């Protein structure tokens, strides 16, 4: 029998137990406040965790967050992401800094802080085409990029010492500090050389006139539905603009726009022959044949022949067509096919 059983019975004993419990709690709180005053909070927390085991901090550098969490859990440690930073040496999502660093010791259940890579900083590539070389270099530097390799080409479209093209292309995204290679204009070619003119966006008749000025021959015309351009507009060409043309190959291939909803397969095509005999005389004569049909107007023959030469050439006529025959740039024949 304890002391409460000897002193109290019944309800009095129950009340006495409650009183003793309250007194015990008061004593505990008093002791806790005393320790806080004596040691301070930091010292008290140190006393409370003093019994935890010390572990060595593992190396988390170059690990993903998921990998780092698994590694730290084996040591009874936790991970906290402090920030993200650009890094050209580490892909996005990988750890580039940790605190404490690997090899240090710390108590269990403590936190290891890390910084995660965002990868290399990304910038937009500016457009330097048609800009002077010096201006292009300044534009690239202001965008966080560097001037790379420079090659030079002839151009009748872009002035000398201005940019013809660039790699990477304008308005794409690349890592900051990347090199941008430029093709720079050397201006028009030397006398005797020929560059392909730019006829994209021109009406087929205007394009034909330009090509004839350069003695270029339209070998074939394709037709495509294109809502962006007006009907009979050149939307593609081969060779490309500013391509050096050889004396032995002056053939040009064009693609022109047709009406919206018109299918190329629905246009009637027929192969017909154009015959012409050059008149007699003392000198060679320049013969040029122009075909006009539902696909537009194009040169189908352009050569110089001696007097008396007979020419009979096949041509593909789309829909209704007619031919114009010029001798020494004088219209001699115009007839339906």
Describe the protein in words.
It is elongated, with a radius of gyration of 44 Å. Strand 17 and strand 18 form a beta hairpin. The mean pLDDT is 84. It has 5 domains: 3-49; 54-117, Trypsin Inhibitor V, Chain A (2-Layer Sandwich); 122-185, Trypsin Inhibitor V, Chain A, CATH 3.30.10; 193-266, 2-Layer Sandwich (Trypsin Inhibitor V, Chain A); 267-337, Sandwich (Immunoglobulin-like), CATH 2.60.40.2560. 22% of the residues lie in helices and 38% in strands. It has a 4-stranded antiparallel β-sheet, with helices on one face. It has a 3-stranded mixed β-sheet with strand order 2-5-3, with helices on one face. It has a 3-stranded mixed β-sheet with strand order 7-10-8, covered by helices on one side. The protein has 337 residues and is an alpha+beta fold. The chain is built from 5 helices and 21 strands.
Q: Please provide the ordered H/E string of secondary-structure elements.
A: HHEHEEEEEHEEEEEHEEEEEEEEEE
Low-confidence stretches: none
* Cα gyration radius (Å): 44 Å
What sort of overall outline do the alpha carbons produce when their principal axes are compared?
A: elongated
As laid out across the biggest beta sheet, the strand order is 18-17-20-21
Strand % is 35-45%
Name of the top-level CATH class of the largest domain: Alpha Beta
- Rounded to the nearest angstrom, the distance between the terminal CA atoms is 134 Å
- Helix/strand-derived category reads alpha+beta
Number of strands: 21
Main sheet properties? 4 strands, antiparallel
The CATH topology of the largest domain is given as Trypsin Inhibitor V, Chain A
Would you identify the CATH architecture of the largest domain?
2-Layer Sandwich
Mean pLDDT: 84
Q: Helical proportion? A: 10-25%
Compute the number of structural domains.
5
Counted by DSSP, the helix tally is 5
